[in-house]
Amino acid sequence: MPSARKANIMNKDRLLVRYDKDLRLRVMYPEARREITGDVVRFIRKAPGMNFISFTFATEPRLERVIGSELDYFTPMNQPFTWKVYDHDWLPGLKTKLEARNFIPDDDPAAVMALDVNEAPERLFQPAEADIRRIAEPEGLGGVIAVLDEVYGGHNTWVNDRLGMHLKIPGYLSVYAAYADDKPVSIAWTYFPAGRFATLFGGTTLAEYRGRGLYTSLLFTRLREIRARGYPFAIVEAGAMSKPIVEKHGFKRLTTVWDYEWKRN
Length: 265
What we know:
It is built from seven helices and twelve strands. The protein is of the alpha+beta class. The chain folds into two domains: 3-107 and 258-262, no CATH class; 115-257, Gcn5-related N-acetyltransferase (GNAT) (Aminopeptidase). Strands 1, 2, 3, 4, 5, 6, 7, 8, 9, 10, 11 and 12 form a twelve-stranded mixed sheet that branches. The radius of gyration is 19 Å and the shape is globular.
C-alpha cells in the first residue's frame, strides 16, 4: 500500500476514535439522561421524546441477548426508540438482528462528513453574500419551524422545546436563517459540545429558493464561527442532497450511520 494512502487511512482511523469518544460515548445532551451499561450507551428523554442507543459495546455473539434486554428496558416507556448503527463498528450482524426484532432502518442513511477546520482553504470562511441572520432568542424560532413545516410537512413544534431550551445555554447552540423576500427561506444550526467537534444540523431550504447558494452561505457562516471558537473539526451527518455540497467544500466521509427505529407490533 502506498505510504500516502496508508497515512490517510491511519489518520481516518484516529479521527474515528476521537469521533466515537466525543460524540457517542462522552457527549451529554441537556434534555436527556445518559446511561452507560456493559452493553450500550443509551440516552433517555422525557416523554414523548425520541430515546436512542448511540454506541454498542456488545460483541457479535451477545447481540441477540442484548437487543432483547434493551427492548425489555425501553418498551414500558411507550416512547419512540432508535438504535444507531455505524458501518465502522465491526458488528456485521447487528442490522440483520435488529430487523428481525422489528427495527426499521431509515430510507436515507447519513454520511458522517468531517472537515479539518485548520487545514481548510480560506475561501470557506469568506463573508456570506446572502442576508444571514442569527437567531439568538427562543422567540425567533418561528421562522425555523415554518421552513421545516413547508419542506418536510407536519408540525415541527419540537423546535420550540429542544432548540429553545438549548439557546438558553450559553455558547451551546447557534441558529441561523437566510432571508429572501423579507422572510426566512433557509435555516441551519450548529452545536458546540465539549470536545473537538462542532456539529452542523438543519441545512434546509425552501424548494423555490434552492440553487441560489443559500445553503453554502449558511455553511460558510457557521464555519467562520467554528474556527473563531477554536474547534478543530466540523461534522455533519449529510443526506443524499447535502452530501455533494459539503464534499465539494472539502468535507471527507468518515463513516455512515443508520437510524433503526423500533416499530411496535
